[in-house]
Write a structure and sequence with these properties.
By secondary structure, the protein is α/β, with parallel strands linked by helices. Helices cover 36% and strands 21% of the residues. The strands form four sheets. It has an eight-stranded mixed sheet.
């Protein structure tokens, strides 16, 4: 009996694993359960072996676990693909030919279900994945009408035989699932939560996209690159609804320059890519710094260098975002730790970019982008997305020297002034200059905006919010929810987490948190401890231990628990 069940499906690319994932998530949500889902997949269109993990719970869940309660391998090799996550309690439901020739086959709890034969008897073997969906619904004794209604809506507009075939497949799987639950004595202690019906099931790309829309985004310049492509697709899907110009540029260089052009014309724009694509954008970033243009720069991190592991996750582009671009100019870097935070920080990024006329980075990663779970609907009733540009006047100077470093930003055609920008060093009006004394004043003016960014720095989150901890676990970005659940499960009052949703500039009172701890641990998904080095360089904060993972997979709750309990394995500790 469980109130939190971990289901994993494995299969080759092209076998419909993602379709099953989407059907199951919606099925459980409509039944009143909280769901969490994430995936890992190989860089290929067909073949290989991928897996989707879905947690079904009576309470909100936001983190991935290693534990597998139910495994459904849709292809041979699926069991071995997740063998390190199996236990004696894992129930494996598969076709007999997918059981594999393994020395431990007799120790596994295997149930033979001929998915392909059932689907073929119904008219098409393609229905086999839907049979699996019905089986899982039957195992959990969900109302069949929930699934059949959803299937009917999902395939509405298709040929009637397709709809009827899928409904028959669901029914066949459901009957097997109920029978299997009875034979196995399975009883999942899951109680529906009425509040789920008011919550949204969203993914990381959707959360970031919704935040962009809430921030007034009306232009995106991007070239498709996993895992950042989800944001481009989401904004393209809703472009007509929200008046967004979506420009799939010929390359990343064009993408960032188009975004800068959009800001110059008065739009609110985002440039989106992954690390390899951003490497091409760095010249455009320097242009952004010179012309003092606002810019929201989204980087969905993945392992490098070069092409690296294009469909995996990592937190190794922090230094790239911080030091990219030639010359010196200010910037801020945000790194959301949850989908809720992703929405909020993306929205904030547009306002902050507009107010400070600076590039604002939002760092996500493959794990964040491909994660789904239920969240409360964000309140957008009080959001303000007012533009910060001014109506120009005769004698207007785009780069007028000011004490704050912030000059009034005009846009062409709005007012009587001439709006001049130039990639060369320039005077107050924007015209090229080689006056060396003026050069110094312009550099100082641009750097003075860093004080504006520092005043807007987001305070790190201490969790649980207490001051009597002895060990402090520092993390940033997408690792937040994993560490939170690990600490909750451990139940130790001597350990707390400090999560940074803004990694540059650092909050001025960071040392107040670390000085209370006898031991400071920094957990991050890269090989060199990039954030730990920033803490030491900028705040003279010494890290006692580092937990580093860089094999392309995200941290799991169990891994973090094992390290904090002194039984670490499977990742680097320094």
């Amino acid at each position: 009996m469980k109130n939190d069940v971990s289901i994993v499906l494995t299969g080759q690319a092209g076998m419909g694993v993602q379709t099953v994932e989407q059907l199951l998530m919606q099925m459980f949500r409509l039944a009143g359960f909280h769901v969490f889902a994430t995936k890992e997949y190989m860089s290929r269109v067909r073949g290989g072996m991928n897996s989707t993990s879905i947690r079904v719970s009576a309470a909100p869940v936001r983190a991935c676990v290693d534990r597998i309660d139910i495994l459904v391998p849709l292809n041979k090799g699926g069991i071995s693909h997740v063998q390190n996550r199996l236990s004696k309690d894992t129930l494996i439901i598969a076709e007999k030919e997918n059981f594999e020739d393994r020395s431990d086959i007799g120790q596994l709890d295997l149930v033979d279900v001929p998915f392909t034969k059932i689907a073929t008897d119904l008219g098409n073997k393609i229905y086999s994945s839907v049979v699996a969906v019905g089986l899982l619904a039957g195992l959990f004794e969900l109302e069949l009408s929930i699934l059949t209604d959803f299937i009917s809506k999902r395939f509405a507009g298709k040929d009637a035989t397709i709809i009827s075939g899928n409904l028959a497949a669901v029914q066949a799987g459901y009957d097997i699932g109920k029978k299997l639950a009875s034979e196995k004595g399975l009883k999942f202690q899951l109680q529906a939560d009425p509040a789920v019906k008011d919550r949204m099931l969203v993914g990381g790309a959707e959360a970031i996209g919704l935040g962009a829309i809430a921030g007034g985004c009306n232009f995106i310049g991007a070239y498709p690159m996993s895992p950042s492509t989800g944001l481009l697709q989401f904004l393209a899907k809703h472009a007509d609804q929200f008046g967004i110009v979506v420009e799939q540029a010929e390359d990343e260089i064009a993408g960032i320059n188009m975004a800068l052009g959009a800001w110059y014309a008065g739009a609110r724009a985002v440039a989106s890519t992954s690390g390899g694509g951003f490497a091409l954008m760095t010249e455009g970033l320097s242009l952004c710094g010179m012309i003092e243009s606002p810019l929201v720069m989204h980087i969905a991190q993945r392992p490098g260098p070069a092409t690296g592991l294009p469909t995996r996750t990592e937190q190794a582009d922090l230094k790239l975002a911080l030091y990219a671009g030639h010359g010196e100019f200010p910037r801020a870097i945000l790194a959301p730790g949850s989908l809720e935070e992703g929405f909020d920080l993306m929205r904030r990024a547009f306002d902050l970019a507009d107010k400070t006329q600076s590039p604002i980075f939002v760092l996500t990663d493959q794990y964040f982008i491909d994660t789904y779970y239920t969240i409360d609907r964000p309140d957008v009733s009080k959001l303000s997305t007012g533009h910060q540009f001014v109506k120009t006047y005769k004698g207007y100077k785009r780069f007028a020297l000011t004490k704050t470093g912030l000059s009034p930003r005009g846009i062409p055609g709005f007012g009587d002034g001439l709006v001049v920008v130039d990639s060369d060093e320039h005077d107050e009006e924007g015209h090229i200059t080689e006056d060396l004394d003026l050069r110094v004043k312009m550099v100082d003016k641009r750097l003075a905006k860093m004080k504006l960014l520092e005043r807007a720095t987001i305070k790190p989150t201490l969790w649980p919010p207490r001051v009597d901890y002895k060990t402090l676990v520092i993390c940033w970005g997408s690792t937040r929810t994993v560490v939170e659940e690990a600490l909750t499960r451990l139940g130790r009052k001597d350990i707390a987490m400090l999560h940074f949703a803004q990694v540059w500039p650092l909050h001025p009172k960071v040392a107040e948190y670390t000085n209370r701890a006898k031991k400071v641990i920094c957990l991050e998904g890269n090989a060199t401890g990039q954030f730990a080095k920033i803490l030491r360089l900028q705040k003279d904060i010494a890290i006692d231990k580092q937990i580093l993972k860089y094999n392309g997979l995200q941290f799991s709750v169990e891994e973090v628990m094992e390290y904090l309990a002194g039984n670490a394995h499977g990742f680097a500790s320094r």
